[in-house]
Amino acid sequence: MAMTDLGIVRRSLSSRRFSSLVTALTVAVAVALMLVLLSMRDAGKQSLQRGAGNMHLLVSADTSPLTSVLNAIFYARAPARAFPVSRATALAEIPLVHWAIPVQKGDNFRGFPTLATDPAQFFRLFQPVPGRGFELSSGVFPAGDFDVALGADAATGTGLRVGDSLVLTHGTSAEGGHVHDAFPFKVVGILAPTATAHDRAVVITLNATWLVHADDFRDSRGDPEQVTVANLRPGEKLITGVFIRAKGRGDGDTPATLPQLFSQLRADPTLTVASPGQQIDQLFKIVGNVDRLLLAMALVVLLASGVTIMLVMHSAMELRARQVAVLRVLGASRGRVFGLAVTEAALIGLAGALLGVALAWVGAWGVAQGVRESLGLVIRPTVDLRWSVVMVAGAVALACAAGVLPALRAYRTDVLRNLRAG
User: Fold this and answer.
1) Who's near 308: CB < 8 A, 6+ residues apart?
2) Which side of the chain, N or C, has fewer Cβ within a 10 Å radius?
3) Which among 108, 113, 142 is positioned nearest to 201, based on CA atoms?
4) Number of neighbours of residue 125 by Cβ within 10 angstroms
5) pTM confidence score
6) CB of 49 within 8 A of CB of 55?
């Protein structure tokens, strides 16, 4: 009997294949949108938290803490302001500071941003993911002034290998910037993937970036002196940020000295001090309003798909009144007719929901790729299994609810009148 009922439902859906498919697609789009939003929201926050690594504070000359975090940690754009490296040296001498790593940004290679730093400190002390430092896929860490280590994505995107040479372009855009072709660099290492924005980085030395830009500055000013590391002037040794970790007992992420250090650094009005964790939370509070709006829109679409199921089936019941009457004559009870109509609606909801889960995986991959290319954030494309089960169950329940009214129409079909009309 169950197979017979299923066959009846299948033939009913096949007789109006186009409307059933469109209705299922409406359900699929709504389910996919909600799954992508719900699943990728947590993945995005985890990605941002990974990029900050084991630093506690970020010091820069940017206009706001959030801007400094986006620029320095996630390579959103080149910082607009720089300050002497001597400031970083002074910061490192503060008793509450465990380490202070100076960095400078502002150039690129084929669109991949440079990160100029002291490799001896950066690769030894900074961990892009707490508890996990940088590792090499091949080669060695930079040691010479014009040595380069490529992040995993930068190596893949450029196709460069250990031993290859490159020249940098001024600015963050690969097109239209001044090419520093007088200073070739050599790739000495390829970094292992970290699933952070640092995978896009082209890591060079501070001496190299100072030499490159000092040469441009002296040439534009008509200064005939050939620039060397030995004759770099204080005004030519500039940085755009300092990664700082506070002293504390053990390996705790929030040492007791951190609030005191934060207050001490903020006393200098010429510097912007940011706590990456706090700024990431603030960013998600801002994004949360948009997130809730998108979820509300997806819910409206899902409810609209339920209304569509109801209208499509209601129209179908008007056209199939004689078929329902025949079923009744052949022995089908009112309850069975009601169940067939609800089952038909449930199958449309189930098919749409399952298709929505598949579309969500495609959408998650697209969002992850888009965010990676535009913002440099590495988000793992994923769809939460728990949310998938909830959404599929919810879509089927909504479809069943939408099918109740058409099912009642079938339940109340006047057998005699509809057979005479035929």
Assistant:
1) 22, 23, 26
2) N
3) 113
4) 17
5) 0.72
6) no
| Residue closest to 183 by CA, chosen among 85, 84, 103, 116 | 116
Query: Can you list the residues of the chain whose pLDDT is less than 70?
Result: 1-16, 42, 44-46, 48-49, 172-176, 249-253, 286-291, 294, 310-339, 371-378, 403-422
Q: Which of 94, 59, 8, 108 is nearest to 244 (CA)?
A: 59
Identity (one letter) of the amino acid at 194?
T
Residues in the chain: 422
Specify whether the CB–CB gap between 398 and 349 falls below 8 A.
yes
SS3 track for the chain: CHHHHHHHHHHHHHHCHHHHHHHHHHHHHHHHHHHHHHHHHHHHHHHHHHHCCCCCEEEECCCCHHHHHHHHCCCCCCCCCCEEHHHHHHHHCCCCEEEEEEEECCEEECCEEEEEECHHHHHHHCCCECCECCCEEEECCCCCCCEEEECHHHHHHHCCCCCCEECCEECCCCCCCCECCCCCEEEEEEECCCCCHHHHCEEEEHHHHHHHHHHHHHHHHCCCCCCCCCCCCHHHCEECEEEEEECCCCCCCCCCCHHHHHHHHHCCCCCEEECHHHHHHHHHHHHHHHHHHHHHHHHHHHHHHHHHHHHHHHHHHHHCHHHHHHHHHCCCCHHHHHHHHHHHHHHHHHHHHHHHHHHHHHHHHHHHHHHHHHHCCCCCCCCCHHHHHHHHHHHHHHHHHHHHHHHHHHHCCCHHHHHHHC
What's the CA gap between 206 and 184, in Å, rounded? Answer: 15
As given in the structure block, the two tokens for residue 351 are 């098919």
Q: What is the CA angle 252-253-255, rounded to 5?
A: 70
pLDDT at 273: 94
Q: Using CA atoms, how far apart are residues 344 and 243, in angstroms rounded to an integer?
A: 60
**Of 132, 57, 124, which is closest to residue 96 (Cα–Cα)?**
57
The CA–CA distances, whole Å, from 236 to 83, 108, 126, 179, 197 equal 10, 19, 25, 19, 28
Residue 26: its pLDDT value, please? 82
| pLDDT value for 149 | 97
Q: Which amino acid is at 187?
A: V
Taking the C-alpha atoms of residue 258 and residue 56, their distance in angstroms, rounded to an integer, is: 8
* Per-residue model confidence (pLDDT) at position 329: 47
pLDDT at 3: 44
> Tell me, what's the pLDDT at 192?
95
